[in-house]
Amino acid sequence: MRKALVAGAIAAALSAPAFADYPSDVAEKFGRGLSNGALGWVEFGKNLYNEPVQHGPLYAPVGLLKGVAHAVGRTLVGAIDVASFLIPSPSFVQPNYVWEHMDTETSYGVK
């Protein structure tokens, strides 16, 4: 019995550093989810501006379509992050927030 208690105490002590960042990871994911869910619509303007600047004025409709797609994608990823914030995970959308790197296209997937 005593060996089991000692083994359990050692296992708990060794795993403590792994959980040291848990509160900040959870808070980061929750905040990221809230901002992406609430501000996903900013992707409209971001893409409507970036496409014509990078490829010419005839690409404005492409920017509008990309804006719609990325707005929906970022909003859904934000909702999923809020719903699962107790399970820390890396960001699925890059850049993490819509206001970061406004000149780059939004991409999806864990990096």
TrEMBL record:
The question of whether Signal is a record keyword is answered with: yes
Q: Which UniProt keywords apply?
A: Signal
Enumerate the InterPro entries for this protein: CHP04073_exosortase-affil
Signal peptide positions on this chain: 1-20
Its protein name is Exosortase system-associated protein, TIGR04073 family
